[in-house]
Amino acid sequence: MPSIPRLELDTTDHAIIDCLQKDGRTSVAHLARVINLSASATSDRVRRLTDGGVITGYSITVDSEAMGYNVTAFVRLAYPTGNYKPFHDLVDSLPEVIEAHHVTGADCFIIKVLARSMRDLERITGRLATLGGITTSVVYSSPIPSRHITPA
């Protein structure tokens, strides 16, 4: 099966990506000054990176506690069947599930959950447990909550 061709990225592309990861609201004019290109050439580069699937979107970062979610947890799910539709249906119905990863090993999924309280976490994990065995780890703190991607 052929793989999707990757864009060849140069140092200018990396500089654009780095700048936009730090501030996705950066204007093209400011970005052009930072990378030392014209605004039109910079705009073309950003469009190429977007069309090529390197830049997949722009978003904001929100403090979960400010939104009322005081508990963060990771739930490992040992899913007993290869029919993943019930899993997808359930996590689609739980807005507190903010990430789900299909993984190797004894567990099938690792799920990141935000909850309003421990009682709320119990409700969410109770619903997830209807699909298979779960193990829940509550987060004390996140010294590296997320990291920008650097060139491979």
UniProtKB/TrEMBL annotation:
Gene Ontology biological-process annotations: response to amino acid
Gene3D superfamilies to which the protein is assigned, alphabetical: 3.30.70.920, Winged helix-like DNA-binding domain superfamily/Winged helix DNA-binding domain
Pfam families: AsnC_trans_reg, HTH_24
MF-aspect GO terms: sequence-specific DNA binding
InterPro entries: AsnC-type_HTH_dom, Dimeric_a/b-barrel, Tscrpt_reg_AsnC-like, Tscrpt_reg_AsnC/Lrp_C, WH-like_DNA-bd_sf, WH_DNA-bd_sf
GO CC term, one of those recorded: cytosol
Domain of life, source organism: Bacteria
Protein name according to UniProt: AsnC family transcriptional regulator
Coiled-coil region: none
This protein's record includes keyword Transcription: yes
Positions of the HTH asnC-type domain: 9-70
Swiss-Prot/TrEMBL keywords: DNA-binding, Transcription, Transcription regulation
Protein's UniProt keywords contain Oxidoreductase: no
